[in-house]
Amino acid sequence: RSYSKQRAAIDREYGQALQRLASQFVKRDWQRGRGEASDSRSAVAVWKGVIEGTAHAGQVRVTASETYRALAAEAARTARLSKERMLKKGIERLQKAQAELLETVKELDKAKKQFTHLQRSSEVAKDKAADVEARLRKSDRRIFHTKASLQKLSAKFSARLAEHSRQLAGVQNEYGFALVSATAHLEHYRRGELPAAMQALDGDLYERLREHLSAASRAEVETCRATQDWFQGVAEASVQVCREQDLLLFLQDHPAFALAPEQRFQLPAVLAQVCLLPPGDDGASLEKEARRWATRVARDHKNKAHSEEGLAGLSPHPIGVPLGLDDVPPQVSRVKAEARLALLRAAGLDVDAWLAGAM
Q1: What's the mean per-residue pLDDT of the chain?
Q2: Could you give the CA distance from residue 13 to residue 227 in angstroms, rounded to a whole number?
Q3: What is the rounded CA–CA span in Å between residue 304 and residue 4?
Q4: What is the DSSP letter of 320?
Q5: Domain map of the chain by residue range?
Q6: Is pTM, for the whole model, over 0.85?
Q7: 2-239 maps to which CATH number?
Q8: Tens digits of residue pLDDT in 158-174
Q9: I want to staple 11 with a disulfide (CB 3.0 to 4.6 A). Which of 65, 196, 240, 355 is the partner?
Q10: pLDDT tens digits for range 255-308
Q11: Distances, alpha carbon 286 to alpha carbons 272, 282, 301, 313, 344, in Å
């Protein structure tokens, strides 16, 4: 009862705290677009699932606290109703069984005393009869006895001994019956009456304990299962969260940021395509340009490779480094240089030879 009462208070406080935490974020506008709200793979949808799951877990805990509170109240009510009734019933049954056993023990003690007394009297009579017989055989009449008186005394003791022997057989049988009867009664008390009295004292205690423990266990299992079922789906959706998916959803909801079709700078109408005119110096200036831009591309490539080797040496397990703003100008320069080399290659210059030499 004390555990259920304290557990109810703890679960209620914990559940309400989770609900207050979730309410702080539920009020915020976390939906950036219609597509993200409908796609469970977006980061916003997963985050929304986490917040709603937190609120759901809080509500489940509050519900569980009501279960524990009901268990505490039920335990107190049933204990008050059955405690005195079961105690009175059990005590009465135990006292009755012990009184019956006490009567049996008294009967056994009485039979034992009778048997012991008669056995002692028989032994005394037997000793006296043997003494008289011995004196008769020896003609030891002493001063106060004659032979006739000794014979009379011998007959008296023999008759008493025979009577004692006859009575002793019956008393011994009665004592044996009382002994086995008391033993059986004691065994019955130990195996039957005493366990029954203890069961009466317990009453339906273990049935109520079983119901109470089962209800508490079921409440915890249902609480954990409800939370697990909710966050299992959130966990599966969170694995699919990626930048490409969020970017696609963002572009679907904001067409202004969508990539336009490939565009090129407009050429004069008189030119059908970009081309190089042969200079008047027999191509020396074009070769100079090819050597210049091949050297530029090779230098950028070496710098990039050197930077990657340095980063790889910092960690035994190198990972991809995010692209920073400082990396953008070299990349732009390399792209422009490669475009110039492509135009020179189209003009017929051996750009690859200059690149191989520069590398």
Answers
A1: 76
A2: 17
A3: 66
A4: P
A5: 2-239, 268-308+328-359
A6: no
A7: 1.20.1270
A8: 777 677 677 777 888 88
A9: 65
A10: 776 665 555 555 454 434 445 545 555 557 777 777 787 788 888 778 877 777
A11: 22, 9, 22, 41, 7
